């Protein structure tokens, strides 16, 4: 993915471009330094970062920064540190493939239909080809936050925040969803618990073997629970029983509900669908995500014996990249319309952290968003977005 260049020339100063030209030539890379700067594939820190005589505390304060085209005139000193990703991962998705479903500048949010193959946020080796950047998040003075995420290979609905109040609001809703009660989604808005205020429905296409879909059919309407091993590795490890703590970290509970199981269909050649060995057919499944864990739907359905079409890392054949089209999309998204309240009104008091910041003279928000409820305590208005069915490839 990248190479580390520790610059320690004997001369006192050299131009960044000269050093990069030599490094690219020696590495055999095909991307010129100017393009690497545009992509954000180069990180830099002064010599203090890698100075072994520095204390851990001091070196932690000197963090690498991502370079860009404006960094071209930079002069390097002996001992300076650079990390250069000569062959960054590329995500050649045209901006025209991104559909803005709803944009509300007054409330400060945007709902987008994200295409498959595009990361939501910058990666360590590519800061240019991602959803936030393509929607203008890198523009000076503009805020565009990601209170929720979708995997790179997953398509469908995602919420972005153009206002920090909404970002904070939606993050609180998601925490309540993961930590709170299990509600039951109903199209008319009823029957959802007070804590589980964000509804996410996913459509996916799974591989079916000789055993058929009997087990899935039997789970319709039920909450399926697994445990996720605490690890940064992928593919993730999901188990039916909670495992022992890993380096002091607990396994995380994962819950989803199987809503619909379609008819088994044959696998047609030439459609670009990659299926697990031994697959006798494929079937479309709709699930409701009740907790938001990394690779949760992919891992839980694979653990049940129904790996997603295209999801080779979870076929049980070793690690690897997703091949073909991953048949997974967020098809429905629903959350309460927020209401703005000023601190000091009724029960809404400014947090201690904000009060201290304000006392120091820092700029703090004087209001925040809350869920607006009627006299019976029910959500006053729901915002719901839904995608129509469409081909997987």
From TrEMBL:
Membrane spanning segments where? none
Q: Which InterPro entries match?
A: PsdUridine_synth_cat_dom_sf (IPR020103), PsdUridine_synth_RsuA/RluA (IPR006145), RluA_PseudoU_synthase (IPR050188)
Which Gene3D superfamilies does the UniProt entry name for this protein? Pseudouridine synthase
Cite the Pseudouridine synthase RsuA/RluA-like domain residue spans from the record.
109-303
Pfam families xrefs: PseudoU_synth_2
One MF annotation (Gene Ontology) recorded for this entry: RNA binding
Q: What's the protein here called?
A: Pseudouridine synthase RsuA/RluA-like domain-containing protein
GO process terms (BP): enzyme-directed rRNA pseudouridine synthesis
Entry superkingdom? Eukaryota
Q: Which SUPFAM superfamilies match?
A: Pseudouridine synthase
């Amino acid at each position: 993915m990248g190479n580390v260049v520790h610059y320690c020339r004997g001369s006192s100063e050299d131009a960044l471009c000269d050093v990069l030209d030599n490094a690219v030539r020696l590495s055999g890379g095909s991307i010129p330094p100017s393009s690497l700067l545009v992509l954000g594939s180069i990180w830099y820190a002064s010599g203090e970062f890698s100075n072994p005589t520095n204390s851990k505390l001091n070196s932690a304060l000197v963090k690498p920064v991502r370079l860009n085209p404006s960094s071209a005139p930079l002069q390097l000193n002996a001992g300076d540190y650079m990390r250069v990703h000569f062959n960054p991962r590329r995500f050649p998705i045209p901006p025209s493939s991104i559909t803005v479903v709803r944009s509300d500048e007054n409330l400060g949010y945007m709902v987008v239909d994200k295409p498959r193959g595009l990361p939501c946020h910058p990666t360590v080796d590519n800061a240019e080809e991602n959803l936030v950047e393509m929607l203008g998040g890198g523009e000076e003075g503009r805020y565009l936050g990601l209170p929720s995420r979708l995997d790179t290979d997953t398509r469908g609905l995602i919420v972005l925040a153009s206002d920090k109040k909404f970002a904070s609001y939606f993050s609180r809703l998601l925490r309540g969803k993961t930590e709170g009660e299990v509600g039951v989604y109903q199209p008319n808005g009823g029957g959802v618990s007070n804590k589980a205020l964000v509804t996410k429905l996913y459509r996916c296409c799974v591989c079916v073997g000789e055993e058929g879909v009997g087990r899935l059919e039997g789970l319709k309407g039920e909450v399926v629970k697994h445990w996720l091993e605490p690890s940064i590795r992928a593919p993730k490890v999901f188990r039916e029983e909670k495992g022992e703590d890993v380096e002091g970290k607990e396994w995380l509970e994962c819950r989803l509900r199987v809503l619909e199981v379609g008819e088994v269909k044959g696998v047609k050649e030439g459609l670009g669908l990659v299926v697990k060995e031994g697959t006798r057919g494929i079937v479309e499944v709709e699930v409701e995500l009740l907790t938001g864990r990394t690779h949760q739907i992919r891992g839980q359905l694979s653990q049940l014996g129904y790996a997603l079409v295209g999801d080779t890392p979870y076929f049980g054949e070793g690690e690897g990249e997703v091949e073909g089209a991953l048949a997974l999309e967020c098809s429905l998204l629903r959350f309460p319309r927020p209401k703005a309240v000023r601190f000091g009104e009724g029960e809404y008091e400014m947090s201690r952290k904000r009060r201290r910041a304000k006392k120091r003279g820092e700029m703090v928000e004087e209001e925040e968003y809350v869920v607006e409820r009627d006299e019976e305590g029910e959500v006053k208005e729901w915002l719901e977005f839904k995608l129509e069915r469409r081909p997987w490839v």
